[in-house]
Design brief:
110 residues; four-stranded antiparallel β-sheet
Length: 110
């Protein structure tokens, strides 16, 4: 589990067996008052979609040659490692490094 927080919000990414499971955004109990229309915490499946123009003969997950574009989602990747760095003014910067066993693509999410 990776968590970034300040005095108003907390953001968490849950990883299990090197897979991204879900992410969650929550208002801190001691932070700002929550507007009536907001729900805290807000949990989503943390999915994403990368659209890549494939220039090799056989695109991943396609039987025919030159199928474009190719879409890759979180299910195509595993978390190789992560970094949480403190930058100017104490701000935290989180990066997930992803790789795929099935597709020759590596990705970095910040």
């Amino acid at each position: 589990m990776l968590t970034l927080a300040n005095d108003q919000v907390k953001y968490t990414v849950v990883i299990d067996s090197n897979r991204i499971i879900f992410d969650e955004l929550a208002l801190r109990q001691d932070g700002l008052a929550c507007p009536v229309h907001m729900v805290s915490p807000c949990r989503v499946n943390a999915d994403f979609k990368l659209e890549i123009m494939w220039t090799d003969w056989q695109a991943p997950k396609y039987l025919n040659n030159a199928e474009n574009p190719v879409w890759l989602t979180k299910s195509d990747f595993r978390v190789k490692h992560h970094e949480i760095l403190t930058v100017d003014g104490g701000t935290k910067d989180s990066t997930l490094f992803l790789e795929s066993a099935d597709v020759p693509v590596m990705a970095r999410l910040r």
